[in-house]
């Protein structure tokens, strides 16, 4: 069988056995039709060869999806779209704030807050009537990078210091209820073990099961503008510089596209793609 012979290279340099089922599972999350999924899998089975990188496999699959079903291609590219919000982590922090807003929280980003001992820079503060959450956001622009045990230990110590003070958010004095560590990639095994042991909430691209960063994004339908193939990289960067991170922001205010000099035809193409993606 092909799967018993072909080894592919992951982003971190590790080799693993190619799995058509794993590819099929990732395609299913794009909401592509079953017929299209089978077509893409069959195409990849013909193209894949020993030593091929997961990135090359992604490019082949994405290319066919984009040709035949662009909304599915956009959803399939979600992980890389989030990664290309960079190179700095600031757009990602704003993106995380939007996730909290979708859950009913008010938010502020890039806050300096006083702990019991020292001041700390907190990437995202989120609060509602019942809960105050402070989040450390770790952005990586390479798929193979992971947040390790040192990061979790550092974040845990910061939140312990912050938990000993009170803060005024939402018009009242309150203590920190939860500290979160959020990354757009993955955690090492030891980092996950420590966080679970210490009851520290950590969110990675595919962790924890059923409540990962990807799950949150998909549940709230918060598609970043970097998923849009109708926008050039220069246009995307121009929008990000104007704090336009989400497709829904453009949908709610189409005139945003005029600020970056898009033609009427270009604006129509972007709005059409956003409407298809929202289905």
Q: How does this model look, in words?
A:
The protein has helices spanning 20-28, 34-47, 54-68, 70-76, 78-83, 90-102, 149-162, 189-198, 213-220, 233-241, 247-252, 264-277; strands spanning 7-9, 15-17, 106-114, 119-127, 132-138, 146-147, 166-168, 173-175, 178-183, 186-187, 201-203. With 279 residues, it is of the alpha/beta class. The chain folds into three domains: 2-76, no CATH class; 90-220, Trna Endonuclease, Chain: A, domain 1 (3-Layer(aba) Sandwich); 223-277, Orthogonal Bundle (DNA polymerase, domain 1), CATH 1.10.150. The protein has a five-stranded mixed β-sheet with strand order 3-4-5-9-11. A two-stranded antiparallel ribbon has the order 1-2. Helix 2 (34-47) packs across helix 3 (54-68), helix 3 runs antiparallel to helix 4 and helix 7 packs parallel to helix 8. The radius of gyration is 20 Å and the shape is globular.
